[in-house]
Fold this protein.
Amino acid sequence: MIVREGRVFAKVITGFCPMEYSEKDAVFMQNALQLARRAFEQDEVPVGALVISPGGEILGQGYNRTEELGCQDQHAEMIAIRQACALRGDWRLDDCTLYVTLEPCVMCLGCIALSRIGRLVFGADSPHYGYRGQREDLCRLYAQTIKNVTTGVCKEEVELLLKEFFKKQRKRDAV
Ligand SMILES: [Zn+2]
């Protein structure tokens, strides 16, 4: 695994995908992957997320619980953000970093942006529901507010976990 120091990337909406990240990023992404595996075990789309303070403390964590709780607002990022806000007693998370295994959807991006999260780090792209997808104009306003995005952290592992999940689901549906 090639690990380099992270850089600041301002061009979020152009499809520019920085592949450089720090060792710390990889460690937190592994934690997020652990959470994603918990979702996998519960037949949820495997996505995990963490909100990290500037000092490296975990303020919030979550994994996708859409099926369990029967609502699309139970995405990993939403759960992690909710927890972090409750812990801090403040909705402003501008000094925090959000790690998530998969590129956020538009709903989660809205919550990330409105929470003023300073940095977003994600693993794999989500071509169908990811905020960058084909809907750049729609997301321009939100996407521009996030100035620092790092992608591709532990990407292969995230993609493998997702592939395994959908393979399992297809098998189940075929029965
Ligand atoms: Zn989402």
Remarks:
- Helices lie at 23-41, 66-69, 76-88, 106-114, 136-145, 155-174.
- The chain has one domain: 23-174.
- The beta strands are 48-52, 58-63, 97-102, 119-124, 148-151.
- The pocket of zinc ion is lined by residues 75, 77, 104-105, 107-108 (CB under 6 Å).
